[in-house]
Amino acid sequence: MEEIRIAIFAYPHYKCPPDGYGPMQEVVTNITKGLAKKNKYNIDVYATADSDLPANIVSVKDIPVSTDPSVPDPKIYEFLSIGELIKNRDKYDIISSHVGFHLLPFAKMFDCPIIVNLQGDYDNKHYYNLFNQCKNDAYFVTISESQRLYLPNLNFAGTVYHGIDVGEFKFNEEVQRERLGFLGRTDPQKGLGDAIKVAINTSSILKIGARKSNTEEAKEYYNKHIKPFIDNKNIIFPGEVSNLEKIKLLNESAALLFPINWNEAFGLVMIESMACGTPVIAYDKGAVSEVVVDGKTGFIIKPGDVAGMEQAVKKIRNMPDRLYKEMRLTCRKHVEENFTVEKMVDGYEDVYKKVITDFKEKNN
């Protein structure tokens, strides 16, 4: 069988796999590893030169932009990376883009199909204008069904949930139930302020693994809703954590708090948490109800309902040991059955076949 020449396109913000934060790079890593095992793809990945992948690395940056303080604007390397892809556009049978909408204005320059993997919350009229103008120039893959509610009538090729290598996440059955966890960023959209309120009001210890964001909005939110409460005794804030530290944090938490204030397109951390056996207490926004099974792998709470989240924490704390262990086992099983790398890669393979066939039929 003739090899399929594929470009998997990501920006050099973080390496693949990332050392800490970098959910998009984590997804790109897992897709690349899964496709490489199939032995029928010639894979180019646009990433940093220090990335460790079973593929050809096409790089415009030696180390991640996020770790290079000399870079004045990350867009420099975003545009250089797009330029490199355009330069190589005749090499590929298909391009799988993981940088949101950024390739859309250039899509007509390519003679192969482009799959745009939609990562974020696009509930905004300006996004609508962009997607509406480019809706027939590419194929679109959503990472949840809820994500489609905020998009115009695009040329959808499918929905593929994120998947993880479950074996990398240690399952832990026994935890101290006064400890809670939070993973994400310090942006207001991630709701860390609400997580801190929940921890304080339930006399819980909260360990926070979060990257500090540098926007003015995020700085103001951090100084008002986060910093005053950090005592590194009950509210513990080590900052951004490595993969090993992330897994340890999840292993030691009775529950992961996920009080998002935006329409999260998927929420990779939720399946990482459940893979460790740790239930998720989340606001019902975005894809939460597609990922968490209410009452079985955690609790889904009305958005903004801090008191409701506190009640869920108390439910978990007061559960008989047998029922709590059963919930942790159910969490792990839920991920093993629905959110593995294998299922994700199979989903993308189905999309690639469908798109290549459709593109050839339309252009012959």
Key terms:
364 residues; alpha/beta; Rossmann fold; 37% helix
Mean pLDDT: 93
Under CATH, the topology of the largest domain can be stated as Rossmann fold
Q: Which regions are unreliable across 5 or more consecutive residues at pLDDT < 50?
A: none
User: Percent of residues in beta strands?
Assistant: 15-25%
Strand order of the largest sheet: 3-2-1-4-5-6-7
Determine the N-to-C terminus distance: 22 Å
Number of domains: 2
Q: So, the CATH homologous superfamily of the largest domain?
A: Glycogen Phosphorylase B
Instruction: Work out the number of β strands.
Output: 13
CATH class term of the largest domain: Alpha Beta
Main pleated sheet: 7 strands, parallel
Choose one word for the global shape.
globular
Q: Into which percent range does the helicity of residues fall?
A: 25-40%
Structural class: alpha/beta
CATH architect. name of the largest domain: 3-Layer(aba) Sandwich
Structure in a nutshell:
The longest helix has 23 residues, at 341-363. Helix content is 37%, strand content 17%.
Describe the structure.
The chain is globular and about 65 Å long. The protein contains eleven helices and 13 strands. It is about 35% helix and about 15% strand. The protein has a seven-stranded parallel beta sheet with strand order 3-2-1-4-5-6-7, sandwiched between helices. Helix 7 (about 270-275) links the parallel strand 11 and strand 12. The protein is α/β, with parallel strands linked by helices and about 375 residues long. It folds into two domains: about 5-165 and about 340-364, Glycogen Phosphorylase B (Rossmann fold); about 165-340, 3-Layer(aba) Sandwich (Rossmann fold).
